[in-house]
Design goal:
With 233 residues, the protein is an alpha/beta fold. It is built from eight helices and seven strands, in the order ααβαβαββαβαβααβ. It has one domain: Vaccinia Virus protein VP39 (Rossmann fold), CATH 3.40.50. It has a seven-stranded mixed beta sheet with strand order 3-2-1-4-5-7-6. Helix 3 (58-66) links the parallel strand 1 and strand 2. It is globular and about 50 Å long.
Length: 233
């Protein structure tokens, strides 16, 4: 369902090619360890699980498979992504929405909020989550895909500190887990890894598109994420 009628600035929503790259990359299992960790953390969920910035619904579908008493709502600004999310799981609904606007849901309706590589709207997180509800945030660490150099955008060394600062008014952090491994990526998977992320909006800068096309050998890369859990105050 597309509830968003305002024009979205260029470079905000993932494009159809970016979404296709993400769907194909995630289907390879390269980030399965992160999906498994999110499912573990949220396995006791019941009621409504909202994924803020759900993309294709890959992570929310894993959580719902681990939590049979839960239903899911995927919110994302990309209509192309949510067309896939709507088919990702039988207990998942999807709505196109700008996460920086007040969300089209009532107060204190969610038992769990997911936020995976997506904008964090602390006031709305707090409004829609029930008292004592669980917020689970996944973000890349500075080591993530570091072997790919400037083909990908760098991660701020103070990202976790800024995350806690952004959410501290509304939530208390209860845990932080590292999810880290090495995976071998084919040239096609390397291209997808770059194209599906923020760098996908900037392929024509600094010769990035040409350098991606020139990749011809598999490469072992680091995948590294931080999973932080918070309880609503």
């Amino acid at each position: 369902m597309n509830l968003l009628h305002a024009r979205i600035p260029a470079g905000t929503a993932d494009t159809a090619p970016m979404v296709t790259a993400r769907a194909d990359f995630l289907a390879s299992g390269a980030y399965r360890a992160l999906a498994d960790e999110l499912a573990r953390v949220c396995a006791e969920a019941d009621g409504l699980v909202i994924d803020a910035g759900a993309g294709t619904g890959y992570y929310l579908a894993h959580v719902l498979s681990a939590a049979p008493a839960a239903t899911g709502l995927a919110l994302d600004v990309s209509a192309a992504a949510l067309r896939r999310a709507a088919r990702a799981h039988p207990r998942l609904g999807a709505a196109v929405w700008n996460l920086w606007e007040p969300w089209p849901v009532g107060d204190e309706v969610a038992t769990v909020l997911l936020n995976v590589f997506a904008p964090r709207n602390g006031p709305e997180f707090h409004r829609v989550l029930r008292p004592g509800g669980l917020l689970t945030v996944a973000s890349p660490t500075p080591d993530h895909l570091r072997e790919l150099g400037d083909l990908v955008l760098t991660v701020d060394d103070r990202k976790e500190e800024r995350l806690d600062g952004t959410l501290g008014e509304y939530f208390t952090r209860t845990a932080r887990t590292a999810v880290r491994s090495k995976v071998e990526l084919t040239p096609e998977r390397i291209r997808q890894a770059v194209e599906m992320g923020p760098a996908g909006h900037h392929l024509d800068r600094d010769g990035r598109r040409e350098r991606l096309a020139a990749v011809s050998e598999p490469q072992e890369v680091t995948v590294s994420f931080s999973v932080s859990t918070y309880r609503r105050l």
